[in-house]
Every structure is written in C-alpha cells, then in structure tokens.
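Protein modeling request. Please complete all fields; requests missing the sequence field cannot be processed.
Requester role: graduate student
Desired output: 3D structure, token encoding
Chains: 1
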Amino acid sequence: MIRVVGTGPGNKKYITPMALEIIGQAQVLVGGKRQLEAYALSHHETLEIGRDLNQVIDFITAKKDHKNVVVLASGDTGLFSIASILAGVFDESELEFIPGISSVQLMLARLKKPWHNINIFSVHGREAKNLEALVDTKRINCIVAGGYWTPQRIAQRLLARNFADAGIAIGQNLSYPDEKIIYSTLNQVINDQADYSNSLMVIFYG
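Delivered output (206 residues):
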C-alpha cells in the first residue's frame, strides 16, 4: 500500500493527527527535503524527492509490495500535488490519500473568503503562455505563483493584455511566524521591488 499524506501548508501545527499517525507507522518515507527534515523518524527508510520523478516512481515500485510506503505531499493531496502523478502510475487499489490543509485554503481563510466558487490555478514552474486565458474576470482568482511568474510579472502581463485593474492580496510564508498578507493592486504591484517568490496571489475580480 502507498499512502499519500497531505502535510499541510508548512507549519507543523497545521498537520492533522491522522497524518502524523500514518507517518509514524511508515517504514518508507518519501518527500521533499523540508518535509523529511520535519517528519522523518529514526526507523524510516527515506528518499528525497528531486527533479527525477522516474527515480521516485522506481523506488516506490520496488518497496510497495513488502513495505509500508508513505509519500509526503505538501498542502492537500487534491490540489497541485504529487498525488495526481502517482494516481496516473499506480492502480487505485494500491493507493490511499490522506488529505491535508492546503496553502490555498489557509490564504482564503485569512481573507475570510469562501472558496467553493474561487478560480484556482497554478503557474508555479510553468510557462503559462496562456496566462490570460486562465484568469476569470467574473470571479475571485487564487494563483499559486512561483519561478518566473511572480505577482509583479502576472500583473504586468494582465494589464498589458488590457485586463482591468483590481485589488490583490499576496500571501507569503503562510502558516509560519513570519507570515505576511500584503494588499495592493495590479497597477501598484508592478513597481513593487519586494521578493514575492513562492507566494499566493489573489485577484479580486468578480
């Protein structure tokens, strides 16, 4: 059995008791560097997830039939998660997903906004040549930013494509003691020199 466990937005206070219980029962623990540093125990055989996902798949395949394998997924298993990759490789009967709190959920909770009708998408580490096609001007948009696509570049691109100015909120280091929520507008953030790498950006259209 392969259990994919959502570890929450980062701070260990936000991981669920069920997730901790399953991690404790694991024999093999697969995850990112920060996740392994936070949750790996002395009895765990570990593999750090890097750029070579084929290596990760091969490792899990070799272990799954005779060991209890747990894969750590940041946030929730159902949102921009390694869980979707594993679901495309392994049979449903071999997988169990344990949900967690996503950074998107936390951001929208901070803003006191329900998220059942939010337009959510990610441009983190993606080319997003059709960025403007992803934005819905009739709804609030929550964007997982990162890599090339900083909030400044997202705003610049949308305004260059004649999107209307709008209020925005940027979430940084969500769940951690140095968490920040910055309020601005598309026009204003273009000239903001702050480093907003790996952040969430909410555009208040709609």
